Predict the structure.
Amino acid sequence: MYAFEYHRPSSSKEALDLAAKKSEGKFLAGGQSLVQAMKLRLSSPSDLIDLGSVSELKNLKVEGNTVLVGAMVRHAEVAASPAVQKAIPALAALAGMIGDRQVRHMGTIGGSLANSDPAADYPAAVLGLGATISTHKRKIEADKFFKGLYETALEPGELITQVSFPAPKRAAYMKFKNPASRFALVGVFVADFGGNVRVAVTGAGACAFRQPDMEKALAAKFAPESVANIKVKSDGLNNDLHASPEYRAHLITVMAKRAVEAALK
Ligand SMILES: Cc1cc2nc3c(=O)[nH]c(=O)nc-3n(C[C@H](O)[C@H](O)[C@H](O)COP(=O)(O)OP(=O)(O)OC[C@H]3O[C@@H](n4cnc5c(N)ncnc54)[C@H](O)[C@@H]3O)c2cc1C
């Protein structure tokens, strides 16, 4: 690891002032991705701006039909929240599937989304539910947030403050996980907003993406058989030691079908 300066601001303003002054600095959430990247010398920020004491980023609440998750809310808190379990059970369940107990107690939604790992779970929920990502200066629709491999719409120094999820009529997330890391080889989030259906896939491509053929079929009839025979093209899907593009394409259909079955239970 290279040398760096460590800062622990107590407000977003202080964190943003530091980020403005330290152009090579980075925000630190739970350190679950960033610290590893630093150890591997893939990232060498001059300054770490630890958001751990910024209490305004830690709010988790349900307002009407919307679940509001502050950027520094840990996965374990979302999974265990009775309010989230009631409003969007699929979101709480997804958070409970991330990594292991230690990862869930350190990892945050803001860090997960800013990092945009191709196999991360939250991007599927954000895209599948049509969430809005708030930063200190704007609101970004989920459809405009994920841009590519570890690439998002965030600008340098832009701070995610909160994510708002509209509650659907029904939803479910199914993932075929890597047994070692528990990251998604393929994960599919299906949400029915009463005729308007969204299907989001993670793990299969450079970043999370929607599956319009399945959305159309499910809007016509929200049933497992609507997606069971949809063959997904493998072009451009991830190819690594864990799975071929063809296998991932197959898994998208299988996971989508299982997600619809689960949403109907
Ligand atoms: C062993 C292991 C297993 C895992 N398994 C899974 C899994 O199954 N599914 C899954 O989805 N994830 C998994 N993860 C990832 C984990 O859940 C974290 O969400 C992810 O690593 C981000 O970590 P973090 O929140 O600690 O952010 P950090 O590592 O602290 O930061 C990540 C990046 O986000 C930036 N950042 C952080 N907060 C903000 C903010 N508010 N605004 C703007 N930028 C910000 C940082 O500058 C950095 O670039 C796993 C991680 C590990 C180590």
Q: What stands out?
A: DSSP finds eleven helices and 14 strands in the chain. The CA atoms of residues 174 and 258 lie 7 Å apart. The radius of gyration is 18 Å. The chain has a mean pLDDT of 97.
